[in-house]
Amino acid sequence: MPTASKSYVDANAARQLVADHGAVLVDVRTPGEFATERAEGSRNIPLPLVKAAQAALGEAERPVILLCASGTRAGQAKDLLGEETGVPVHILEGGLTAWKRDGAPVESSGRRVWGMERQVRLAAGALVIAFVALSLAWEPLKWLGAAIGAGLVVAAVTNTCAMARVLAFLPWNRRAA
After folding, report:
1. I need a labelling partner for 23 at 20 to 30 A (CA). Which of 48, 56, 64, 105 fits?
2. Which residues are paired to 24 by β-bridges?
3. What is the average per-residue pLDDT within 70-77?
4. CATH 3.40.250.10 residue ranges for the chain
5. Which letter, b or e, does each residue of 107-116 get, where b requires 16 or more Cβ atoms within 10 Å of its Cβ?
6. Cβ(71)–Cβ(39) under 8 Å?
7. DSSP sequence for 128-175
8. Does domain 8-108 fall into CATH 3.40.50.1240?
9. Average pLDDT over residues 7-26
């Protein structure tokens, strides 16, 4: 599948698109992350559901601005959407982090759910420690620890993360805002 051309906008340009053209802010993070903190007025369409929402995004006949925590998942969402929405689709450069840094308004539930990247680091680190410790009792378990490390290398090289996709199914990541 060819990669869609990527149009990045900063927080100020995104706010201007919302004000002038009624652009739709689409947050592609998990529902748990979205419930914790989100750009004011944004709606949540988690990354795995973006392709299914493609037609609805085009029917709104308004520009779409994709965002996530840092911009990576928004870029993946843009790749999934391709050029077929029929409306301009932009990526918020720097994600919610840049949005907040530029003083743009955010909404918060007061709930604290760790971001997906932090959850992945915790899970991967805990698994490696567990497999290394258990390998003292049964040596072949060291290879499971090595497999986790290899998975992290693949995640970095491909800019995708299977562990994040699995963690997205945990209850705190699935709660609606």
Report:
1. 48
2. 64
3. 92
4. 8-108
5. eeeeeebbbb
6. no
7. HHHHHHHHTTSGGGHHHHHHHHHHHHHHHHHT--HHHHHHTTSHHHH-
8. no
9. 96
